[in-house]
Amino acid sequence: MSDAPMSAKTAAETTAPAETTMPAETTAPAETKKASWLHNAVGYEVYIRSFADSTGNGIGDLTGITQRLEYLAWLGIDIVWITPCYPSPMADHGYDVADYVDIEPIFGDLQAMQALIDRAHELGLRVVLDIVPNHSSNQHRWFRSAVEDPTGPHRDYYLWRDPAPDGGPPNNWVAHFGGPAWTLDEASGQYYCHLFLPEQPDLNWRNPALRAEFEQTLEFWFERGIDGFRIDVAHALIKDSEFRDNPQTADPAGITHPRDQFRCFEHRYDLEQPESLEIFREWRRIAERYDSALIGETYVLEPAGLANLVPGDGLHLGFWFAPMQMPWTAPDITKTLRETSARLGDRVGWVQSSHDESRPATRFGGGDLGRNRSLAFAAMLFGLPGVPFIYQGEELGLEDGVVPPELRSDPIATRNPGAVGRDVCRTPMPWGPGRNLGFSSADQTWLPLGHGVEDSVEWQRQNPDAHVHKMRSLLRFRRELRDLDPEVTWLEAPEGVVAFQRGDHLFALNTHDEATDFAPGGMWSVVHRTGTGSAARSVPSIHIEGTETVAARRVG
Ligand code: NOJ
Questions:
Q1: Which residue stretches of the chain have pLDDT < 50?
Q2: What CA–CA distance (Å, rounded) separates 159 from 269?
Q3: Which residue out of 50, 82, 95 has the highest number of ligand 1 atoms within 8 Å of its CB and is therefore the one to mutate?
Q4: Domain ranges, residue 62
Q5: From CA 140, how far away is CA 146, in angstroms rounded?
Q6: Which end of the chain has a smaller Cβ tally under 10 Å, C or N?
C-alpha cells in the first residue's frame, strides 16, 4: 500500500469549505447541561432482529437482549442502543413505525422492555431507544386517517402536494431506497412525500400538533426509565417549505443503486434545513429533566454540516459516518477524523460500523488484516473526545455474512435488481456452538447465519488470543483513561502513521503492514497497543507494529 506523505497540515485543512444551507458554525456553542454519564462512555448498537432470539421464532427479541446484557457488561460497554422495537409491518424492519408507544409483539411487550431496562440499570448499563421521527409507517393510525379523511386533523401530519402540471411528482426529489420521493394517493389526487419507502410517509414537522405528540412520546419512554434516544434521520425532519427542486449534479439515468441515484443531486431542499435545530432544542429541554441523551443519526458526510446540526444546545451527539466510506490510507484517515474532531469536540458519536453498512473487517481488507485495521482504527476513535459506538459483532471482528439473493430481506436489495443491500451486515449474532450458533432454536432464522463457530462469543471468550479480548482490553483501557485533555493536537509523523496528542497522551496508528518507529520528541511509555508489540517504558522512539495503534504517555 502506498500512502501519500503525511504532515501536520493534512487533507482536512485543505478540504473545500462546506456548501450548506445551514447557518454558519458558531465557534462558542451555547452548550446546555448534558447527561453527565455520556462523558467517556462507549456505546454498543444492538440490531434487535439479529441479536438473540428467546422465543424460537428465528427473530431476535427484547428478552433475548436482556439475557445477553451480562455479556455487554463483561465487555465493558456503557450504553446499549436498541434498534426500533415498536409495532411495525416491517417494510424496513422496524424503521416503519405503526405505534410509537408500544412494543412489536415479535419482539415482546412493555413488560419485557421494563425487565430489560431494569436489568441493564442493575448492571450499570444505559439504555438508548431508537426513535424514528422523520416518517411513520403507512399503517400508523395517523396516516390511515390522513388518507381516509383528507379534511381531518391528521392530513397535515404528512407532506401532501398536488401533482406537477404534467401529472407527475411535485418535484425532483428521490427516495433513498430508489424511485421518486413521492407516491400518488389516487383517491385524493395528491402525492405524499417519502424520503425512504412509499410505506414510510414523511411526517410534517411544521405541524405543532405532531410536535406535541412526539414530545409526549419522549416522555412516555423517559418515564419508563430509558436513558436516551438515537434519532433516526435527524438531518431531514424539516423540508423546504416551498418544496423546491434539488439541483441535479449528475444524470441518474442508467444508475441502478439507489444510493448512487441519490448522489446525483445536491440535497439543498430535502435535507439539513436549519429549522430542524428548534425541534432538538425542545427535545433537549425534556431530555434534561430525565438526565437523558439525544444522539442524532446525522447522515451528513461533511464536518461543517454536521457541526451545524449539533451546535451544543440540541442533540448531545451527532454520529459521524464518514469512516464508513474511508479508504485505508493515512491521509484519508486524518481527513476523516481531524476536522470533525476539531469542529465538534466531544459532541461526536464515532462509528465505523452499523446495521446499514458493510462490516469494517470486510471493508478494510477482510480476514485478519481487516480485523486488525478495524481494531486499530477503533483505538483512534477511543482516543478522541466524543462517544465511540461499536456495532454488534464488531467486537468479534466479524466480516460480512453471505446472503444469497433468494434469502435477501432488505428492501434496498429486494426492490432494486442488482443491489446487494444491507443484509450482509445483519446476519445473526454467533453466540456459541450448537443450533444456529446459539442465536435461536428455530428451524430457520430470519436471515441465514453468516459466521462459523470460531467467530462466536463463547469460542472467542475461551481463546485468549481472540478478537473479543483485544476489544475488551481496549474498552478497559479507555475506561481507565478517564479525563484526557480535551484539546487534540495532530502530530507530524512518519509516512503511513496518523498521530494525535491529548495532554500527556499520544495515539498513533500505523496504517502500513510493516512496523515503523515514531520519535515525537520527549520520552514515552507505551500504555496500550492493539497489536502484538511489546510494552516499552521511557523510550524516545515508539515502535509501532504494522496495522497497529499504540497509545503512549509522556514521561519526560
Ligand atoms: C436509518 C436507519 O439506520 C436505516 O436502517 C433505515 O432504513 C433508515 N434510517 C430509514 O429509517
A1: 1-33
A2: 14
A3: 95
A4: 36-138+205-479
A5: 10
A6: C
HEC secondary structure over 132-192: CCCECCCCCHHHHHHHHCCCCCCHHHECEECCCCCCCCCCCCECCCCCECEEEECCCCEEE
Instruction: Say how many C-beta atoms besides its own lie within 10 A of residue 55's C-beta.
Output: 16
Distance from the alpha carbon of residue 201 to the mean position of ligand 1, in angstroms:
13
- CA distances for 310 relative to 36, 197, 233, 276, 482, angstroms: 17, 27, 13, 11, 24
State in Å: Cα 414 to ligand 1 middle. 16
Question: Cα(236)–Cα(274) distance, rounded to whole angstroms?
Answer: 10
3-state helix, strand, coil in the chain (%, to 5): 30, 15, 55
| DSSP code per residue over 363-398 | HTTSHHHHHHHHHHHHHHHHHSSSEEEEETTGGGT-
Look at residues 365, 353, 371, 215 and name the one whose alpha carbon lies nearest to residue 294: 215
SS3 assignment, position 202: strand
CATH number for the domain spanning 283: value is 3.20.20.80
Q: Which residues contact 368 (CB under 8 A, 6 or more apart)?
A: none
Distance between CA atoms of 406 and 383, rounded to whole angstroms?
42
Determine contact, residues 515/491, Cβ cutoff 8 Å.
no
Nearest atom in ligand 1 to the alpha carbon of residue 195 is 10
Distance between Cα 61 and ligand 1 center (Å): 19
Which three cell numbers, joined as nine digits, stand for 81?
442502543
- Nearest-angstrom CA–CA distance, 487 and 504: 11
Strand partners, 351: 389
With a 6 Å cutoff on the Cβ, whether 45 touches ligand 1 is no
Evaluated on CA atoms 202, 170, 240, 324, the torsion sign reads positive
Cα dist. 212→102, 219, 345 in Å?
18, 11, 32
Count structural domains, the chain.
1
Residue 260 inside a domain? The answer is: yes
SS (H, E, C) 78-135: CEEEECCCCCCCCCCCCCCCCCCCCCCCCCCCHHHHHHHHHHHHHCCCEEEEEECCCE
Answer whether residue 177 is part of any domain.
no
Measured from the CB, is residue 232 less than 6 Å from ligand 1? yes
423 in contact with ligand 1, CB cutoff 6 A: no
Q: What is the pLDDT of residue 34?
A: 56
The C-alpha R_g of the chain, in whole angstroms, comes to: 23
Is residue 96 in some structural domain?
Answer: yes
Cβ–Cβ < 8 Å for 214, 133: yes
Residue 352 is assigned to a structural domain of this protein: yes
Phi and psi, residue 506, nearest 5°: -130, 145
Euclidean distance between CA atoms 481 and 502, whole angstroms? 11
356 lines ligand 1 (CB under 6 A): yes
pLDDT for 36: 84
